[in-house]
Amino acid sequence: MNIILFGPPGAGKGTQAEYIVNHFGLAHLSTGNMFRSAIQNETPLGIKVKSILDAGELVSDDVVVDLVQEETTKDMYLAGCVFDGFPRTVAQAESFDHMLANKNTAVDALISLVVPEEELINRILSRGQGRSDDTVEGVKKRLTVYENETKPVLDYYEKQGLVNVIDGTGSVESVFERIKNVI
Ligand code: ADP
Which of 88, 150, 156 for a ligand 1 pocket mutation test, highest count of atoms within 8 Å of Cβ? Predict the structure, then answer.
């Protein structure tokens, strides 16, 4: 089972992804976590993407797609995966569909977490994870990028009938209950 966990920054993708993988025994692939780990370890990829993440902009599609392509060759992804923060552009979604088709698999569902913008901003600014992009400007930039570049991914998967809209407000447990019902 391959699930895309979709939503703006601060919607709770990372938190819910952990709940889903523990409950359903799936792998978890977060492109944001992969980039942050590369930056921390000062790998060539990390050095290349650091200023992009700090600015709240998107890493280029070919870099992201190559990274996911390589990562998903590992056996741990065979039973299925929660994709968190990917695909984030329509071009990434198209490449992703081809990538999965080559492995004789496909996206089974997209779960779209919906949270009002004021709450997104409050959540991010109060989560205190020490992320260098969690500043007022960083959050505003990421929300703008989400609106312009990422939201069209919803229409792309809507055409395939895969979109499930979930209310992302309330307790972590109540949001997870809604997700479990959909899955
Ligand atoms: P958030 O949802 O809070 O913005 P993520 O951890 O998903 O956090 O992403 C952090 C940053 O990593 C993004 O702002 C972007 O710079 C980069 N990034 C992550 N995933 C992608 C992707 N699929 N395509 C392009 N850039 C990405």
Answer: 88
Separation between Cα atoms, residue 35 and residue 51, nearest integer Å? 11
β-pairing, 163-167 vs 27-30, is unpaired
Is the CB of residue 88 below 6 angstroms from any atom belonging to ligand 1? yes
> In this predicted model, what pLDDT tens digit does every residue of 129-182 receive, in sequence order?
888 999 999 999 999 999 999 999 999 999 999 999 999 999 999 999 999 999
Contact of 94 with 159, CB cutoff 8 Å? no
Residue nearest ligand 1's atom 15 by CA: 58
Decide: 87 and 59 in contact? Cβ < 8 Å. Answer: no
Report whether residue 96 contacts ligand 1, using a CB cutoff of 6 Å. no
Alpha carbon distance 86, 157 (integer Å): 13
Helices (H), 12-165: 13-24, 31-40, 44-55, 61-71, 90-102, 117-126, 136-145, 152-158
Per the CB < 8 A criterion, the answer to whether 90 and 156 are in contact is yes
pLDDT digits (tens, 9 = 90+) for 99-126: 999 999 999 999 999 999 999 999 999 9
